Structures are given as structure tokens and as C-alpha cells.
TrEMBL record:
Residues binding ATP, per UniProt: K76
Keywords, ordered alphabetically: ATP-binding, Kinase, Nucleotide-binding, Serine/threonine-protein kinase, Transferase
Keyword set includes Cytoplasm: no
Gene3D superfamilies membership: Exo-inulinase, domain 1, Phosphorylase Kinase, domain 1, Transferase(Phosphotransferase) domain 1
Domain Protein kinase: 49-303
Protein name according to UniProt: Serine/threonine protein kinase
Record's keyword annotation contains Glycosyltransferase: no
Taxonomic source organism: Thermopolyspora flexuosa
Length: 574
């Protein structure tokens, strides 16, 4: 098998199914974007690449997992509104050609691209590993030898990037993927295609993530290699403490802190503190180059990057903790039985079986979960990872981790309930008419909550109180779950508070099924893969409105509370 430097994810003799299995077994619990079935509008083939699933969407395009001539790859398809701009296309061609010159040392190299015609796309090696940002949020800071491996690996990647005449410009934890054979830096250089000739973005905004932007960029200079070194220092502090040394709630605050404050490095490994302090110098001329950074880390001059890259290793078990079962997506089938149809048929079969089990309301004993039953699968209709703002979710005031109801700026969504209010809601901005049988999924962080939090399914005929009928499926901070009905007569618990096994407030995978049929509502709630609450409401004649779905937060014990949300999706089950 061919080995690639630093990450060494084998692609030459690996099948797509094997690659997905590896991700499912090792990666899914740590926050890698779940491979989901394709929507009708998604491509199934791009050049010689067969599209298997969608990995995620961002401001520049959509990323797919695909099978190529040499194995699994990641393909980013550029959004049409960029691709239709002739100036963008010219810059895109220039940056792709530059990125192709970057050697593979601890990077995910560019393998192929479509630079003319529609759509524009770029192919990189597929990295079977979680990104550092999600690991830090869900599992906490790195420790021990993993810190050194990260420092050396990312520095090695910067030497390769800078030697090719490329500046990353947006180095941050989310652009560092982790695998057993080391970190891989992704998305280098391509974002520069958004720039105009004077270094500003086409929208006039500074490109980058505020907590990781170098001071000279904030003050109007174009980002050079020195800005990547500054970002490396911020990434390393985040890896050891959980946050950038300039972590801020607003861009204005980040600007002030980056330009004026001396970073607090007290939580940094003492052996790395002088190197990181040098990388975080305000004056770019005083920062080391990437090669000098690498030499200092490995303690020898003119370190050989190929040799260093071949020795980098990460202990993923220490980083991610115990793994949970993932979902394997089957490889594409022949046209006689299209892959997407096959997935839907399997999901409908699973849904029918669950429906048969749930025809009678299930009695649940307090303190005991139901018999284990994995959530059903189906066709994903809507998905939001909150990586980009302005995607249609409610926005109250400024965005940030302390927002009342808004995007956090770090890839999540948040809601806060103050002492003068009881509940808060956020409707998912789904334009399509939703089916009668859906699975709503979301990942909750309730570490700052004294609350009930979860999702709701609304079937109200109108906005009038007399016509309202919706259901809340939620868990609370003490590790209990329940299903609630809300109608003209008020709020009514349909199930008792049920204890959730092995509950963790900081990482709750919640899935709720709402199925409307013949004047009845079939409701199920999973925490992780554990079915914890189930009810059939036989008095749901008023559930006649178009379904709407969203997020719910309720304060308890009369105190202010907050919850964070990530990876929201809606799946068709029938």
C-alpha cells in the first residue's frame, strides 16, 4: 500500500466502503461531518469521480465524499454565485495552480480540479479524521505527546505551503484534521480566490477567523507567511487550553485584543512557551519562519521535512476517548437499483417496523430507559452545521457565544433564557413542505444549562391559541428525558421524566421522531442510540397544519440558562 507523508491515509488500495467504515468506527463520535445521503439536486458524478455522500456545506461550496480512480477523495464544488463571476474564476484558477505545488508534508494535497465550465470543483485527498476544533469542543484540550505531534505536524505543513509560494490565510483548529499518523492542514490558499487584487475580499471583509488573525492583517496589510505563523501560535494555545489566546465575543473585541494585548500563556506547556511567544509577536518581522519554527521544535537546524513528517503520530484514543457505533453508508449500486433509492427503501423498512412496535403507547418507568432501539435512517432533507451565519435561523442581536439567540461564530447556534422569560424557540428555516414522518437530530451542549432543551414538532392549524398543537421532545441538565404536548389547554407531560443512561451534559446527541397518521401522533426520543421516551397520542385530530420543526429551550429553577446546538438535520422516514 502507498503511504502518504504525515497522515498516511491509504487511498491506492482502499475501497470507498472501507474508507467509510473506518470513519464510522473511529471518527464519527468526535464530530467529523456525518456522511449523509445525497439530495436530489446533488451531483452523482463529477468527471471520473462517483459521488458517494455529502460531508458538509460552507460559505464557498459543498464538500462531497467520492470514489476516484485511486480511492476515496474529497471534492469541494464551488457555489454558483462565485463560479459565475469571471474575476473569481480567474483567481480560482491561479490559486488552484499554486496549491498544486504544495508538497504532501502534513497537508491534504490538491489532486485534481475543474477550472473551466460548470460547476467548478477541486479534489483533495480524503482524510479520515476529526478536525481539531470539534475535538476541543467535545473532548477538551490535547495533552502529552499529542501536543508535540500537533505542533510539529502543523509547522511542517506550513513549510510545505510557504515553499510553494502560498499563504494559508485561515489557519485555525477547524482547518486541522487529526488522524493516527498525524495532523493534516486543509483549505490552504484556495480561499484567496475571494480576494480582489488589493488583498481585500470581494465583499470588503477581512478574510479569516477573528481569534486567529494576525495584527498586521487587522490593521490593513495583506496577509503574508508571517500571518500563518501567528495563527499557528493561536492554534497551539487553543490545543492546550481550549481557546485562542485572543478568544472574543465580537470582531471588535478580537481586533482590540490581537492588536493591543499580550497573550496569557500560563496554560501552555513550559517547553513550548518561548516558541509560541515568538510566533505571537506583534511585529511580523520578529516571528520565526516556518522552517525556523520546525527547527526549534525538533531541536536541530535545517530539519528534513520528509523525515520529520514520517515520524509524526497522534494517539487518537487519548484525544477522542471511547468510540461509539457509527453509520456505514453503502457504496453506490448499479443503475438498476440506484444507491439513494436503496438507502430510502432500507429506511422505510426500518420505519415500518418501528411503527408496528409503536401502535400502542408505551408505559415508561421513571429511572429506566426503554429497550434499546437505534434511530431509523432515511433521506436527509435539511442539514445545518452552523459553520456559516445568515442561513435563515433566528438572529437576536449580535452573533457570538453569549448571544441571546444567534450563531456563535465558532460553528454552533445558541439560545439563552433570561430570568424574566420561561422559554425560547428557534424555527428551522426549511422552505419545503415537510413529510408526515420525520426524524429531527441535533447535538446539544448543556454544560451551562439548568434547563430542558431539545426539539419541537409543530402541527398547529394557525397562530391562534385555540388552533395550536405541537410537541416538545427534550432532555434536562440532570439527565432526564420527556415528551410534552402543548395545545389550547396548556402544557401536558405525555411521559414521566425518564433517566438517560450515561448522560453527558456537554455532548448530547438527540434524535426525535414525529410521525403523523390518521389523527394520531407517534413520538419517539433517542439520546445517543438509546430510545428513552415513546408515546402514541391518539387525540391528535388538531394536528392538521403544515409541519414546522425547530429548537426549544426552557429555564428551570427560576434561573438564567443557555444551551448550544450543532449538526441539526431533518430526515424523511416515509
Amino acid at each position: 500500500m502507498a503511504r502518504l507523508e504525515c497522515d498516511a491515509f491509504v487511498v491506492s488500495e482502499t475501497t470507498l466502503g472501507d474508507a467509510i467504515s473506518l470513519v464510522s468506527a473511529i471518527v464519527m463520535p468526535t464530530g467529523v461531518p456525518t456522511a449523509v445521503a445525497l439530495d436530489p439536486g446533488d451531483p452523482t458524478e463529477l468527471g471520473p469521480y462517483r459521488i458517494a455522500s455529502r460531508l458538509g456545506r460552507g460559505g464557498m461550496g459543498t464538500v462531497y465524499l467520492a470514489e476516484g480512480p485511486s480511492g476515496p477523495v474529497a471534492i469541494k464544488v464551488i457555489n454558483p454565485h462565485f463560479a459565475n463571476d469571471p474575476e473569481f474564476r480567474r483567481r480560482f484558477r491561479r490559486e488552484v495552480e499554486a496549491a498544486r505545488r504544495v508538497r504532501r508534508f502534513c497537508t491534504a494535497p490538491v489532486l485534481d480540479a475543474r477550472l473551466d465550465g460548470e460547476p467548478l470543483w477541486i479534489v483533495t485527498e480524503y482524510v479520515a479524521g476529526p478536525d481539531l476544533g470539534r475535538v476541543l469542543r467535545e473532548n477538551g484540550p490535547l495533552t502529552g505527546s499529542n501536543i508535540e505531534a500537533l505542533a510539529v505536524g502543523v509547522a511542517t505543513a506550513l513549510t510545505a505551503i510557504h515553499d510553494a509560494g502560498v499563504v494559508h490565510r485561515d489557519l485555525k483548529p477547524g482547518n486541522v484534521l487529526l488522524s493516527p499518523l498525524g495532523p493534516r492542514v486543509i483549505d490552504f490558499g484556495i480561499a484567496r480566490a475571494l480576494d480582489s487584487e488589493d488583498g481585500q475580499t470581494s465583499t470588503g471583509r477581512i478574510l479569516g477567523t477573528p481569534d486567529y488573525i494576525a495584527p498586521e492583517v487587522f490593521t490593513g496589510r495583506q496577509a503574508g507567511p508571517e500571518a500563518d505563523i501567528f495563527a499557528w501560535g493561536c492554534v497551539m494555545v487553543a490545543a492546550m487550553t481550549g481557546a485562542s489566546p485572543f478568544a472574543s465575543k465580537t470582531i471588535e473585541q478580537a481586533f482590540y485584543r490581537v492588536v493591543n494585548e499580550t497573550p496569557d500563556l500560563s496554560g501552555v506547556d513550559p517547553s513550548l512557551r518561548p516558541i509560541i511567544a515568538a510566533a505571537l509577536e506583534k511585529d511580523p518581522a520578529k516571528r520565526p519562519t516556518a522552517q525556523q519554527l520546525l527547527d526549534a521544535l525538533v531541536r536541530r537546524p535545517h530539519a528534513d521535512r520528509a523525515e520529520v513528517a514520517g515520524t509524526v503520530r497522534l494517539d487518537l484514543a487519548a484525544i477522542t476517548g471511547p468510540t461509539l457505533p457509527g453509520t456505514r453508508i453503502a457504496p453506490r449500486q448499479p443503475e438498476k437499483a440506484p444507491w439513494r433509492r436503496r438507502l430510502m427503501d432500507a429506511a422505510m423498512g426500518a420505519g415500518a417496523a418501528l411503527l408496528a412496535v409503536g401502535l400502542v403507547a408505551t408505559a415508561v418507568s421513571v429511572g429506566r430507559a426503554l429497550a434499546s432501539s437505534a434511530p431509523p435512517e432515511g433521506e436527509v432533507l435539511y442539514q445545518e452545521n452552523f459553520a456559516q451565519e445568515k442561513t435563515g435561523w433566528p438572529e437576536d442581536g449580535f452573533a457570538g457565544v453569549e448571544a441571546g439567540r444567534n450563531y456563535t461564530g465558532d460553528g454552533r447556534y445558541t439560545m439563552r433564557v433570561d430570568t424574566f422569560e420561561d422559554t425560547k424557540w428557534a424555527k428551522a428555516p426549511v422552505n419545503a413542505v415537510l413529510p408526515d414522518d420525520v426524524l429531527v437530530s441535533v447535538k446539544l451542549d448543556m454544560s451551562k444549562a439548568a434547563s430542558w432543551s431539545g426539539v419541537y414538532c409543530n402541527y398547529s392549524k394557525s397562530d391562534q391559541d385555540r388552533d395550536r398543537l405541537f410537541y416538545v421532545l427534550a432532555v434536562n441538565d440532570t439527565g432526564h428525558a420527556k415528551i410534552v404536548r402543548v395545545d389550547a389547554d396548556g402544557w401536558r407531560d405525555l411521559t414521566p421524566d425518564v433517566e438517560v443512561p450515561e448522560f453527558q451534559r456537554s455532548n448530547v446527541q438527540l434524535r426525535a421522531r414525529c410521525a403523523r397518521s390518521g389523527g394520531e401522533m407517534h413520538l419517539q426520543l433517542w439520546a445517543g442510540d438509546e430510545l428513552v421516551a415513546e408515546y402514541v397520542d391518539t387525540e391528535a385530530e388538531k394536528a392538521v397544519g403544515k409541519p414546522s420543526l425547530g429548537l426549544y429551550l426552557e429555564a428551570v429553577r427560576g434561573s438564567e440558562t443557555r444551551a448550544y446546538y450543532d449538526d441539526f438535520s431533518i430526515t424523511r422516514l416515509a
